[in-house]
Amino acid sequence: MTPGTTPIGLGIAGLGMAGAVIVHAAAKHPDFVLKAGADPHQGPRDAFARDHNARAYEDVRMLVRDAAVSVVYIATPHQFHAEHARLAAEHGKHIILEKPMALTLAECDAIIAAVERHNVHLVVGHTHAFDPAVRLMQEIIARGELGKLGLIHSLNYTNYLYRPRRPEELDTARGGGILFNQVPHQIDTVRLLAGGVVRSVRAHTTALDPARPTEASCAALLQFDNGAAASLVYSGYDHFDSDEWHFGISERGAPKEIAHGAARRALALAQDEAEARTAAFAYGATNSALPPHQPHFGVTIVTCAQGDMRATADGLAVYSRDGMRQIALPRGGSMPGRREVLDDMRVAIRAGKPPVQNGRWGKATVEVALAILQSARQGRDVALEHQVAVDGSSG
Ligand SMILES: NC(=O)c1ccc[n+]([C@@H]2O[C@H](COP(=O)([O-])OP(=O)(O)OC[C@H]3O[C@@H](n4cnc5c(N)ncnc54)[C@H](O)[C@@H]3O)[C@@H](O)[C@H]2O)c1
User: Fold this and answer.
1) Whether 146 and 233 share a structural domain
2) Is 301 in the pocket of ligand 1 (CB under 6 A)?
3) Which of 4, 64, 114, 265 matches a 20 to 30 Å C-alpha distance to 219?
């Protein structure tokens, strides 16, 4: 914390899986103090209030009225993002909004309008574009160290579809499936690396399990205005696990025992899927230890004219005609990736510097996700109209 400044009061809307992670990150961040949380479930509320000596409300409408809260971190299910962001803005709270920003472009527009009307800051994240390794790759590209960017390949194989789910998470029309939940990490990351402005999308998606009938795999080609392209591959069927190819480390950076099919087997034993979800992921049920390695999202390989780059367990590997060199990244005291999200909000509040991942950026990422769905359904290229560059200029 800068001498003479008091920590920024943080409120968490939704004390589930994402809420729990940001609580652990914020508790170790010197510039923020946890003041309140909101969740309809009593278990996570009680655990949060006890652990952080904070208030815990049943309803987000009470959280946004809490005078000690300056920033609301919205980690409620997707379908509530637009409503909760509007409520927070109306009460003069700055907002950090989990991905996806919202489910439609109209909802994104409503959030942007509310944020502007009430003159508050909005950071759309966390996504893995905030990972220190991604930010370092962005700097290396921007400095021109490896010459012109040509291609980005992002691949992730997980157990996504077989983690316990609520019914709407298995229904694409209600925001279910990987295009709203998982692929935004990949879209945000490749947009940050390639300058932000996607010109067109061509994609194929698959829903391979009739019992869980939403998209759980996809292949997409994104073409950027600067001539670069990105291929995104995601598959969430709990068979192959691409963390095998990332040093056996989990998404958040913890050592991981790779167990193919384990999520399917556990799900088959669950009596009540919604209850199993709360029991497994709510605040209080999750591990609060700071992972020993850097976070990552599958395998991302960046190809430039004079070299390739990829994230490693503890930093970055750069491959060039001189061989391979490793760049270590400091892990710091707060959780990498989430720390950067909080840092961006702190800088917006204290220095007035707008975040790159603001409302227009978040809308552009939602536009790409929707275009992937559209391209897959229509079997054609889809042109993008609402893109924004890293420097904030319109695409
Ligand atoms: N950035 C990431 O890596 C990441 C990881 C997980 C989830 N997320 C995002 O976070 C959001 C939540 O996902 P999750 O996996 O944590 O879900 P979750 O079900 O684990 O948690 C959601 C929580 O919100 C609570 N909730 C539901 N309705 C509410 C309401 N009206 N008011 C307040 N709380 C309410 C639920 O009781 C639950 O505790 C999603 O939009 C998801 O995309 C992001």
Assistant:
1) yes
2) no
3) 265
What CATH code is carried by the domain that includes residue 191? Answer: 3.30.360.10
Average pLDDT, whole number, for the chain? Answer: 96
**Index of the ligand 1 atom closest to the CA of residue 126:** 1
pLDDT digits (tens, 9 = 90+) for 325-368: 999 999 888 899 999 999 999 999 999 999 999 999 999 999 99
Q: What does the chain come to in residues? A: 395
Say if CB 343 and CB 353 are below 8 A apart. Answer: no
Sheet holding 32-38, edge to edge: 55-57, 32-38, 8-13, 71-74, 94-97, 122-124
Quote the tokens at residue 231: 């291929």
Residues 12, 39 within the same domain: yes
For ligand 1, atom 38, the nearest C-alpha belongs to: 16
User: Which domain does 32 fall in, by range?
Assistant: 8-128+335-361
274 and 137 within one domain: yes
Q: Does the beta carbon of 76 lie inside 6 Å of ligand 1?
A: yes
SS3 content of the chain, % helix, strand, coil (to 5): 35, 25, 40
Query: Would you say residue 3 lies in a domain?
Result: no
- The CB of 72 under 6 Å from ligand 1? The reply is no
pLDDT (tens digit per residue) in 99-151: 999 999 999 999 999 999 999 999 999 999 999 999 999 999 999 999 999 99
Q: Are residues 277 and 194 in the same domain?
A: yes
Q: Is residue 121 part of a domain?
A: yes
Q: What is the pLDDT of residue 4?
A: 54
Question: Is 221's C-beta closer than 6 angstroms to any atom of ligand 1?
Answer: no
Q: What's the predicted TM-score (pTM) here?
A: 0.97
Does 391 map to a domain?
A: no
Query: Which residue puts its alpha carbon closest to atom 18 of ligand 1?
Result: 16
Q: Does the pLDDT at position 275 exceed 90?
A: no
Is the residue at 304 inside a domain?
A: yes
277 and 298 part of one domain:
yes
Neighbours of 318 (CB within 10 A): 23
Pick from 343, 344, 338: which is nearest to 356 by CA? 344
